[in-house]
Design a protein that fits this description.
Two copies of one chain form a homodimer.
Chain A: E1 2-4, E2 12-13, H1 15-19, E3 27-39, E4 43-50, E5 53-60, E6 77-86, E7 94-105, H2 126-131, H3 133-136, H4 140-162, E8 166-167, E9 173-174, E10 186-189, E11 192-196, H5 201-211, E12 213-221, E13 234-243, H6 249-269, H7 271-277, E14 287-291, H8 292-302, H9 315-329, E15 333-337, E16 350-351, E17 354-358, E18 360-365, E19 368-376, H10 380-389, H11 398-405, E20 411-417, H12 418-425
Parallel strand pairs in A: 2-3, 5-7, 8-12, 14-15
Antiparallel strand pairs in A: 3-4, 3-6, 4-5, 6-7, 9-11, 10-11, 12-13, 13-20, 15-18, 16-17, 18-19, 19-20
Amino acid sequence: MDFVNGLRLKDIVEIRDILAGGSNGKEIKIRGAIHTIRDMSEFSFVVLRKYEGLVQCVYEEGKIPDFNIRMLREEATVEAKGIVTAEERAPGGFEIRLTGIRILSEPAKDTTMPIPISKWKLKTSLETKLTLRPVSLRNVRERAIFKIQEGIVRGFRDFMFSQNFTEVRTPKIVAGNAEGGANVFKLEYFGKKAFLAQSPQFYKQTLVGVYDRVFEAAPVFRAEKHNTTRHLNEYTSLDFEMGYIDGFEDIMDMEAAMLKYTLQFLSEEYAKEIRILGIELPDVLHFPAVRFDEAKRLVSEKYNRKIRNPYDLEPEEEILIGKYFKEEYNSDFVFVTHYPSKKRPFYAMDDPADPKFTLSFDLLFKGMEITTGGQRIHSYEEQVAKMEARGMDTEDFKNFLMIHKHGMPPHGGLGIGLERFTMRLLDEQNVRETTLFPRDVSRLEP
Amino acid sequence: MDFVNGLRLKDIVEIRDILAGGSNGKEIKIRGAIHTIRDMSEFSFVVLRKYEGLVQCVYEEGKIPDFNIRMLREEATVEAKGIVTAEERAPGGFEIRLTGIRILSEPAKDTTMPIPISKWKLKTSLETKLTLRPVSLRNVRERAIFKIQEGIVRGFRDFMFSQNFTEVRTPKIVAGNAEGGANVFKLEYFGKKAFLAQSPQFYKQTLVGVYDRVFEAAPVFRAEKHNTTRHLNEYTSLDFEMGYIDGFEDIMDMEAAMLKYTLQFLSEEYAKEIRILGIELPDVLHFPAVRFDEAKRLVSEKYNRKIRNPYDLEPEEEILIGKYFKEEYNSDFVFVTHYPSKKRPFYAMDDPADPKFTLSFDLLFKGMEITTGGQRIHSYEEQVAKMEARGMDTEDFKNFLMIHKHGMPPHGGLGIGLERFTMRLLDEQNVRETTLFPRDVSRLEP
């Protein structure tokens, strides 16, 4: 009988092994994709691409028996054998003088790359980049974007665990939706009508009754028809929900602490990608917080802009609020609090001091909403009253109302749009730049 | 201007603070839900439920001004003030002698719990438990199940990161599907036909071309009509895919190492839940591996069972294979390798030694398939040929074929059904027991 026992040691090295030292002058084996070949007549540079970065190999004509450089194609993958040699001008300070090459795989015959992915920066349109996503992501800068995104989620999760949150996985096929409106995808579910979840709202509230504090990082779906630079029809939502709060300020405190942690985590664990992308991490010492109505007044006064609708924030106003707090407080972030009740969902808790407003907030990052959060109604009677006042049929929500009926602690939470957050962090102008495989009104592939 | 600065210190303690010592004889404040009230005539036990466990409080009549025990209802949430007192018979070895109670929230008027969640074990039918999931999960054993599930995913992720995998997030709304067949959910996508992803297959292969090794823990959707104890229409798939492999054995090695790590991680970090649920973690020193045809022969001989179809494994055969390897090798796991080509998708690599079979495997855990994996075709010409032999239109897959056309390393991967794995680990008889909010042919709520 054969047995599988776990990882077997292989004599293949990684870049980190070489950088760790001790390989200089030694012959090693390394595997990677042929990123570029530069023929220098006497010799050739063969640059290998690995997940960690690029490795410069040097091939001297005649050094490898039965091999010549014309046998090697870009995007083939190889096992290269060679002597590690310190070389200041090479990436990482070393190069590999080739003594052997074994081709592991090759691209299709008679093909060439549709875009020059080995260029430092892809100078193609976003449209082209997206259409060619399966290969354009092989560009070193492009792939660094999604390492940063990985880091954001890791930071978020690590921090949540440190604060005693439980990670949950809630269903994406649902019978009803929390956020209301028409922007919901419908599907046929064994003869029943079902929807794709716009948010994990009902479930995360439910699970606060179980675990006190929960979080989830998962896809959400919005059938919004507008095709803007900041909307996606499928995106990743970083959600948390916490019980036993004293007020919605506890939620903002938690988010602020999470962002501090995550940005610190990025600066430590993703320094390479931060350097590749030239990111300047924002200062997060403190986050100004301003009431919704006050924010509108401030920007209206400073920038001579008439308030057209006192109950809504237009995207241009968000940009101006961002500008105001950058200019006045040198902050890239601002919490805008107390959104009007009519603009918030039925589960939002109204401000007892003025029920036209809610105990809720958005977080703006460089003038764009990246978080919506707030305190939720925990009392059954209060929740039913608010639904009835809105003409909703409570019977449609009896599973949700089960939690209020049988007791819920005071609680609240938020949702962060991961791709938008990444977009702002990287100063990108289109959220599709920071989405692996974006879904929008006209894009369903690749 | 107000500023949000991060977490503020509160004078509320957690169970862990008390267990850390130093609180004995001191007055503290703690928050939780009223799990049970037991009136002992002279005094009452008030058990608080927190995410960490239960806390026994003792209320003596008259000790708290303007308060009596009849003002307190089960499932209300409170802030309790009291003196921490060592008490052997209490959970955790301490109790809190109440000196004050502040009610934070209450269940609806005139309601009682539909099931006795404070019982150690819920003795209701699965059907009832699922229908009442929002409250039945408050049971200490029920919620422990999904802490274990959290732990499995954490173990999986931590191990993947340690092996230089990149975490990715791939779209769930897709234009085409990898696994084929009719069991796919359709949805209307702005006038186009779209589907819910049956697996992240195309995307994870694509991303191997970018990051060499990738993983994802995310929902997948299968519109299978059969309503069995082991099928779900939405489940969590733990997927990984790795490049530069020497053979599909590398994938089994990686899974074996991951399982060893994860079970060790559970035993350390989730010891409390393991105790609550009485789980006996399986031995994972080594995993037997047997060829598909050989496995069929072995169980046919040992259990006198006729092989009806040499190219398929019936669920009963899986159970017998599990039984065989338990009896013969004392192993709860067995890798079954070299599945027939006609039973595997078009991207599976055939065995050059006998193309009727593939370089693939399933992992059975106590007689049930919890993983499907294998090596994939990396050559463009080979992939096109296999698709054409199956009568598929390569034009429908041109985004997927882009990766082969432009070069892919030898690679492979697997998908693990999280809920099934949890089910087997906990010796549950129905996968719905280990699914937070299951979706099946007849269940779309809650």
